[in-house]
Amino acid sequence: MVDLSVDIAGLKLKNPIMPASGTFSEELAEIFDLERLGAHVTKTITRGWRDGNPTPRVCEVGGSMLNSIGIPSKGVGAFLEKVVPFYRRYETPLVVSISGNTADEFATLCSEVSVEGVAAIEVNISCPNIEEDGKAFAIRPSSTYDVMRRLRAATDLPLWAKLTPNTGETPEVARAAEEGGADALVVANTILSMAIDIRSRRPKLGNLMGGLSGPSLKPIALRMAYQCARATGIPVIGCGGISTVEDVIEYLIAGATAVQVGTATFIHPTAMIAIIDGLEAWLADEGLAGVRDLIGTVIDGEQDEAVVFMEAAP
Amino acid sequence: MVDLSVDIAGLKLKNPIMPASGTFSEELAEIFDLERLGAHVTKTITRGWRDGNPTPRVCEVGGSMLNSIGIPSKGVGAFLEKVVPFYRRYETPLVVSISGNTADEFATLCSEVSVEGVAAIEVNISCPNIEEDGKAFAIRPSSTYDVMRRLRAATDLPLWAKLTPNTGETPEVARAAEEGGADALVVANTILSMAIDIRSRRPKLGNLMGGLSGPSLKPIALRMAYQCARATGIPVIGCGGISTVEDVIEYLIAGATAVQVGTATFIHPTAMIAIIDGLEAWLADEGLAGVRDLIGTVIDGEQDEAVVFMEAAP
Amino acid sequence: MMGVREKIMPVQQEISFKAFEMGLAVKSNDPVNGEYRKLVLDAPAGLLARCRAGQFFHLLCPQSGGETPYLRRPMSIYGFYPQSGELHFLYKVTGAGTRALAALSSGERLNVLGPLGVPFTIADHWQDLVLVARGVGLATLAPLALEAQRLGRRLTAICSARHPDYLMSTGYFADLGADVITLTDAEGTSDPDNLERVIEGLVAAGRADAFYTCGSNRMLRLLQTIGARHGIPGQIALEQQMACGIGMCHCCVRPFNRGDKQVHLRVCREGPVFDMMEAIAW
Amino acid sequence: MMGVREKIMPVQQEISFKAFEMGLAVKSNDPVNGEYRKLVLDAPAGLLARCRAGQFFHLLCPQSGGETPYLRRPMSIYGFYPQSGELHFLYKVTGAGTRALAALSSGERLNVLGPLGVPFTIADHWQDLVLVARGVGLATLAPLALEAQRLGRRLTAICSARHPDYLMSTGYFADLGADVITLTDAEGTSDPDNLERVIEGLVAAGRADAFYTCGSNRMLRLLQTIGARHGIPGQIALEQQMACGIGMCHCCVRPFNRGDKQVHLRVCREGPVFDMMEAIAW
Ligand SMILES: Cc1cc2nc3c(=O)[nH]c(=O)nc-3n(C[C@H](O)[C@H](O)[C@H](O)COP(=O)(O)OP(=O)(O)OC[C@H]3O[C@@H](n4cnc5c(N)ncnc54)[C@H](O)[C@@H]3O)c2cc1C
Ligand SMILES: Cc1cc2nc3c(=O)[nH]c(=O)nc-3n(C[C@H](O)[C@H](O)[C@H](O)COP(=O)(O)OP(=O)(O)OC[C@H]3O[C@@H](n4cnc5c(N)ncnc54)[C@H](O)[C@@H]3O)c2cc1C
Ligand SMILES: Cc1cc2nc3c(=O)[nH]c(=O)nc-3n(C[C@H](O)[C@H](O)[C@H](O)COP(=O)(O)O)c2cc1C
Ligand SMILES: Cc1cc2nc3c(=O)[nH]c(=O)nc-3n(C[C@H](O)[C@H](O)[C@H](O)COP(=O)(O)O)c2cc1C
Ligand code: FES
Ligand code: FES
């Protein structure tokens, strides 16, 4: 029997496979037993009620997708009343994703969701920081550090910081999150993209732009996961374009301790189950004792990160 | 007869289709008549001789590719002696792509290549700025502005600034390039990515990381082209993932005045010719008088750019 | 690689599985007329037993002719026949996904996810049903005729099309004992004024306890007006771009009037069948 | 959409077109043994007339079984027969691209780009040629036998393989009048020491004016040693990951010794055939 369990800053998961925020909800329990997952991760909520973006909120781009759901939210009250209790029936740890447009609001929400039944808080700092120039907190190291300090002070639960690919400073942002108090990094959110219908000359999303997810995102998010694992000492949870066991193995080798599966669940609702079974089989075939024998085993010749970054730019 | 010609800051092109730097060279003349192209764009050169990166320099990722060629260069002397004269046989304007790791070296090279037979200079500011922290000039507005000022002072030829997607500040960088003296923007270069061979546990590129190009890049680069066209008053040359006429039309509608075709030429060496013919046929079918009737015709409800950016982040 | 997907999952204590992902064999896939095709799949009895009129399946269209549709495509259940073990879809070829469907030949497998969504309901006191359909809307409304027959209700099917050649399913409705009224653009009978006259006639004759419709904006407005005028309720099946199809992603919302508020509801989950009076024309 | 691609381009003044992109029909595609397959394409005379031993084509492998190979795959010309209008490839199924090739059936079309690269050369005073091949290296070296026969040179073909069952093309070489020496791991005859003995025997017999080899590092080292010892020249065909295949992208470089410098040369353009003494073992 191979050991699929991993440890994310003290939180033990029975396997390293969990859903990505916004691509998972209670409804999936109608398709398979959610107890099989390594963790449950809820859609990002905000404190107050929000409507989300205009439709269409989704479109297809060459084997991947764009979304501009925005963050429709019923608010923290409804969340604590309905969503958290639903997940109490499972032993699987519950991770709650939150967001806020100001550090204040964000921190308040963070303490409000620090309740029994919540095992960790994922802070979606890819959302706009409206106190500065409307750019996501996680675009710059300084705003990342500032908001993480505030969030750290607001809860004793493990804090997972979810980074954005819309930055040129991934290692610096990762270090800023660690210094600000993050216990783990979720790498990464979607990358800002666009598609236009050439017949109507309208953007395919009601919101004009949206986030790219699915297979096209994988090489970008994998690079970020690798950079973050090297740049920090905290666990990295890889996320972006995972749809097969091979994708998961690639992330683990790159240095991720666990992974999140997003868009793939839209294509195959049981994708995560297939991946968990497949990972177990693959490890057994390779004669490995467990997932932990795979994590961070990339043979990279210990190249200096800065040099690597410089030289890779064409 | 539809009019395919476009004007890039005073430089008239017979059609809006040109190759992307690094994906084109004299050798292509053995496959079709290079006179058919809107412009010729050479591989980026540096002042001195450079070796380029370790092999493998290329790998495939789900319907796209990564490269870490680096910038092997024979230096400016060899370039002026061999390459520039080759293109003199064509009437098609020659655009020379240059790069440098310091503003000084970059500016010197810029004046050195300002010779007869060169119609415009494309400055690849996606290369590392080793005077700062090794990040590409075009990652930040300030370093973009500084290097563009130096380059502007070094030549009277039209300057095209080639931007990078490895930034969270595309509109700001675009404005900085314009203010620094760019006559046009080339949007964009490749995005930093990675792939690992799960059997050998080695990165698939000798250089560990490399740039993603091809179809996966399209929604990202299209978004940037749209942002740049809105943020500045100078022409935008779209680049990233173009392989069909439909892709070109999408970029033109988004606001690009011309486009560059890169990786698609590796798959079909005559891709650009097919696109030029196809564009002419499509315009005729639609009853449009010329390319210029298409540029920037996206119906975007004049949404405020900052808001759009904020709301798109999930 | 993904072979485990069709494995039977252990039953959970409190939640029972409602929708299934499975590969079904194609029995036939033939053109109905120039624009529409009917796809017949071989489906297990257990799956067909769960199907209801108005629900849909989310179809994973295969790669075909160099095109690779990525997201699933929602398709209404056009018919489900536990006796013959068949699941039917009626579809219009519009883009990459439906082109890929059109390329399926007998014996090939199609991965389907369903049944999904909220079905039509027929209240006990709705004895006379009126169904108003145009184009591919028929696909969604057709199984309602079966259900009406099963419950012994009378049904009038008003079928509208561009041209008499494009009228579909009229024989199907007639066979199930429905009164069929056909209206076409070519004959000049499908305009809103005439449609209104036809429906008002049914109302006057006491043949309209409830309306059922689908898709068209113009029809929705008209039926809402007539419904409000006479206090006649109704249901409408709506469409929206979807990703997950099961309620997770909130891609597929539409606005509805509920009381004095506007609410956003998910077409895949709270729909695709909605209260006709709450729906908002677009 | 891309239909114009195969249109004939206007001839330019100073530059003539050397390589062509075209779709060729598959005549056959059969297994040669467990690991290798032979692909025979129907090719126009004009294209075959340009082919030379040692050159390669860059193949656009189709989508197949859910896999979508993106970049082209380089394959040596295994044979070109203007009389029968055939172009042959011998390939080993290793990954997505070659799996897609293996799935091609007669009549389907394969998009090829070529012929590309620098061919083998046979200097006038090289009367006795020695070819040393293992595995798929045979694909590259085989057409050299044809050329040798055409020029009336004597050829010794040393064919090495894991097992006698995996020896390929020995009949082909023999038919062309070559002396064939087979060495296998299974029989314990393929080790470097024995190979060296065999080659030294040929040298001693005056049967080795030039060496031709391909791919293997171990063989390169051995032949360089023997070559240096006796002043015998040679050529080697090398491989490298490629993107464009025509010299534009600089993906495919390898280091070579030239004078006292190391230079980087493109396998697709300055190669795939290089001077054996300049090549650097890896
Ligand atoms: C609940 C529901 C039931 C439906 N039932 C039927 C039916 O029985 N028969 C039928 O022919 N069509 C039906 N449709 C519409 C059908 O889903 C679309 O025609 C189909 O998705 C088009 O896919 P495509 O790839 O061919 O077209 P494309 O235009 O290339 O599709 C591009 C994207 O847009 C989405 N899309 C395009 N049109 C629609 C639409 N009208 N509704 C939702 N998404 C769309 C596609 O799913 C895909 O993601 C139904 C839609 C819904 C929501
Ligand atoms: C000039 C030249 C001639 C060749 N001739 C032959 C031949 O006649 N018969 C034959 O069986 N093989 C030959 N090869 C090797 C052949 O190109 C590879 O086996 C093939 O590309 C593998 O593709 P794949 O998708 O099946 O494997 P994958 O491993 O999935 O390929 C992944 C990527 O790596 C590249 N790649 C993998 N192996 C090689 C390799 N050895 N050389 C270059 N690129 C590689 C592929 O092109 C692709 O881009 C030749 C290579 C070169 C450079
Ligand atoms: C429809 C949709 C909604 C999403 N909503 C959220 C969200 O609310 N919060 C968040 O942090 N990420 C959200 N994401 C991003 C995903 O969590 C994930 O980071 C991204 O999709 C990349 O993973 P994937 O390629 O596996 O989908 C959303 C993604 C999608 C596709
Ligand atoms: C092999 C390769 C080499 C490249 N070399 C350069 C270069 O030297 N300078 C440059 O500015 N961009 C270079 N690029 C980036 C391309 O010019 C282009 O911006 C990018 O590939 C995106 O376009 P595409 O998706 O059409 O390929 C290179 C790209 C590739 C694939
Ligand atoms: S399609 Fe995902 S919620 Fe409806
Ligand atoms: S493969 Fe592009 S230069 Fe050789």
Please provide a written account of the structure:
The complex is a heterotetramer, with two copies of chain A (314 residues) and two copies of chain C (282 residues). Chain A has helices at residues 76-88, 103-112, 141-154, 170-180, 218-231, 245-254, 264-267, 271-286, 305-312; strands spanning 6-8, 11-13, 17-19, 40-41, 58-61, 64-67, 94-98, 120-124, 159-162, 184-187, 191-194, 196-197, 202-203, 209-213, 236-239, 258-261. Chain A is α/β, with parallel strands linked by helices. In chain A, 65% of the residues are buried. In chain A, α2 (103-112) runs parallel beside α3, α3 (141-154) packs parallel to α4 and α5 packs parallel to α6 (245-254). In chain A, strands 3-16-15-10-9-8-7-4 form an eight-stranded parallel sheet. Chain A has one domain (6-308): Aldolase class I (TIM Barrel). In chain A, 32% of the residues lie in helices and 18% in strands. With 282 residues, chain C is an alpha/beta fold. Chain C contains six helices and 15 strands. Chain C has a seven-stranded antiparallel sheet with strand order 4-3-7-1-2-6-5. In chain C, α5 runs parallel beside α6 (217-230). The radius of gyration of chain C is 19 Å and the shape is globular. The model of chain C is unreliable at 1-14 (pLDDT under 50). One flavin-adenine dinucleotide binds at residues 56, 69, 71, 73-76, 89-92, 94-98, 136, 139-140, 239-242, 267, 272 of chain C.
